[in-house]
């Protein structure tokens, strides 16, 4: 199944993001338990945002998954970029 790297860029509403973070992380945790989300986490420098890595059938499936993310639903993701990723080495390459 294809792998997709997603880059989120958050808007500046840190207080709103803090409010919805538990729901956002719960949603992502369920995806990780299902095996759809391989990893995710916020960037620690530069513009506020995060990297998420999914295994899904198509970019449309990833788009539907992202649409249900509480951060996206609440308009906290100012920009996202979904890219197919050919994982050649490492634990996600198997």
From TrEMBL:
Domain YCII-related: from-to ranges: 6-85
SUPFAM superfamilies linked to this entry: Dimeric alpha+beta barrel (SSF54909)
Family indicated by similarity: Belongs to the YciI family.
Organism: Cellulomonas humilata
Protein name: Uncharacterized protein YciI
Phylogenetic classification of the source organism: Bacteria, Bacillati, Actinomycetota, Actinomycetes, Micrococcales
């Amino acid at each position: 199944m294809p792998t997709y790297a997603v880059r989120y860029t958050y808007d500046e509403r840190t207080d709103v993001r803090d409010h919805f973070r538990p729901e956002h992380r719960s949603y992502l945790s369920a995806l990780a338990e299902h095996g759809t989300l391989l990893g995710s986490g916020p960037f620690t420098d530069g513009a506020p945002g995060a990297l998420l890595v999914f295994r899904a059938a198509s970019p449309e499936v990833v788009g539907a998954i992202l649409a249900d993310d509480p951060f996206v639903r609440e308009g906290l993701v100012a920009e996202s970029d979904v890219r197919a990723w050919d994982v050649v080495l490492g634990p996600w390459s198997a």
